[in-house]
Design goal:
Elements lengths: L6 H15 L17 H20 L19 H20 L8 E2 L6 E2 L1 H23 L7 H14 L20 H8 L11
Antiparallel strand pairs: 1-2
Helix pairs in contact: 1-3, 1-4, 2-3, 2-4, 4-5, 5-6
């Protein structure tokens, strides 16, 4: 992975890579916490979103498909999933490597379409990390969304999510008493933190 000064993005990218490589061949069509999408669709959406962030920053080519209408077909194997995901993550890391901390207007693909450098990289990281959790939950694997990563992403979520309710995010869920930061983040994004593949 391309190294850059944005550790938060590196951690989120590692989270979704970890989730993707753990998917068994028969699990690509399994349901996910994103109720209208299966595992393959979530991964395609996440890769497309990362390409959209990269293209907004660099002016380069974006995803060749609509990330909000991803193909439901299963991947042909781990290598075909990696062939989609790895270039998307690399391009996004490279794009953000050219963004300097403190920049005030970094273009992003969702409203408000321009953010400070810190919020822009946080938005890309939030997208990758939460979809990593979606995939892990759907496949019954340990979540790569750690407490530290969730804690770092909570301020980003609080800053960005509200205008996107009903489009990119569902209504918030009230956290259970004593919920940890992973659950609080997921609930704020409209996910049930106790969602499991048996649902």
């Amino acid at each position: 992975m391309t190294s850059n000064q944005w550790d938060l993005l590196d951690q989120a990218h590692q989270a979704i890579r970890t989730a993707a490589v753990r998917v068994a061949a028969h699990q690509w069509t399994a349901p996910t916490p994103c109720s209208e999408w299966n595992v393959a669709q979530v991964l395609r959406h996440a890769a497309g979103d990362q390409l959209a962030y990269a293209s907004k920053i660099t002016g380069g080519e974006g995803p060749g498909f609509d990330p909000f209408a991803p193909d439901a077909a299963a991947f042909g194997g781990e290598s075909s999933a990696a062939a989609l995901l790895d270039p998307a993550l690399s391009r996004t890391a490279e794009a953000f490597a050219g963004v300097k901390p403190g920049e005030s207007a970094v273009p992003v693909p969702l409203p408000p379409f321009s953010l400070t450098a810190e919020l822009a990289v946080g938005a890309a990281a939030l997208d990758a990390a939460v979809h990593a959790w979606d995939i892990a939950a759907a496949t019954g694997r340990p979540s790569p969304l750690t407490l530290d990563l969730a804690r770092a992403l909570l301020p980003v979520a609080h800053a960005l999510v509200e205008p996107l309710r009903g489009f990119a995010f569902a209504a918030a869920v009230e956290p259970a008493e004593g919920a940890d930061d992973v659950a609080v983040l997921l609930n704020h994004l409209g996910r049930r933190a106790d969602w499991a593949a048996r649902d």
